[in-house]
Amino acid sequence: MKVCRSQNDRVIAGVCGGMAEHLGWSPFRLRVVWVLATIFTAFAGVILYFALWFLMPKAPPVPTAFEPAVLQPWKQTG
């Protein structure tokens, strides 16, 4: 499975959300670890975050099961 930026669990760019999905972690837990690691490494995490923001591809949009009524002429609308 390829690591991609999350489309639906994002605060800034979806980097932590995508990594959490890939690792099977809670996004909140990964964000806390990321912030602590950033503080203890003299803010190297910020540089790494921006690098991953540009290097990680966006996840493909999640297909929805919803079809507008316009595309379903056989269904009558209220």
Walkthrough of the structure:
α1 (15-23) packs across α2 (27-40). 13% of the residues are buried. The protein is elongated and about 60 Å long. It contains 3 helices and no strands. The chain starts with 14 loop residues before the first helix and ends in a 23-residue tail after the last helix. 45% of the residues lie in helices and 0% in strands. It has 78 residues and is an all-alpha fold. The longest helix has 14 residues, at 27-40. It has one domain (1-60).
Summarize the structure.
This protein has one domain. 45% of the residues lie in helices and 0% in strands.
Topology at a glance:
Layout: H1 15-23, H2 27-40, H3 44-55
Helix pairs in contact: 1-2
Characteristics:
single chain; 78 residues; mainly alpha; 3 helices; elongated
User: What structural category characterises the helix and strand content?
Assistant: mainly alpha
What is the count of helical runs?
Answer: 3
Give the overall shape, derived from the CA principal axes. elongated
Number of strands: 0
Mean pLDDT: 85
The radius of gyration computed from the alpha-carbon positions, rounded to a whole number of angstroms, is 18 Å
Unreliable spans? none
Beta fraction: under 5%
In quaternary terms, these chains amount to single chain
Order of helices and strands: HHH
Distance between the termini: 44 Å
What does the largest sheet look like? none
Helix content: 40-55%
Number of domains: 1
